[in-house]
Amino acid sequence: MKFTVAQIKKKAFNEPFTFADKVDVSELETMNNDIRQIKPVDVQGECTVHGDQFIFQFTIRGEMILPCARTLVDVTYPFDIRAREIFTTTSYLADGDQEDEIHLIDGEVLDLTPYIKENILLEVPFRVFSDEADVQENFLQKGNDWEVTSENTKEKKIDPRLKKLENLFKDNEKEK
């Protein structure tokens, strides 16, 4: 989502410059995070100009697929993020401006996409849980040399490697 400084100044002269678009943020899937899939997000907002500062207030809406913290089943996580970013065309920033996270505009084009991705990454939850119905249908019950068991399982299987030890306990009972 790119805008030219001239375009913003022209449209935001008397009233805020509004924008709405779908943004492809699928690059987030390849980064080192839990996002398995993310579709293009809807971005709507407005920009107001105050001197050399461009204040963007926008909303990011979409869905991402994350792993369940218990079972690693895919969980759809909808999000609705409200963000505010401030940009400036001046090359001089005061000490307070750096704390307020005022971003410099390099050249004549302002690219909002990296800030959209950053806001999405900041909103990824630490963990999500799937509904019980989804878990029963989708998660793996068995794998290579492992199996999910519950406390209600009445069948007690003895590991074949420990089968010989069973006889040892029977011999000790006979001696008593």
From TrEMBL:
<protein>
    <recommendedName>
        <fullName>DUF177 domain-containing protein</fullName>
    </recommendedName>
</protein>
<dbReference type="InterPro" id="IPR003772">
    <property type="entry name" value="YceD"/>
</dbReference>
<dbReference type="Pfam" id="PF02620">
    <property type="entry name" value="YceD"/>
</dbReference>
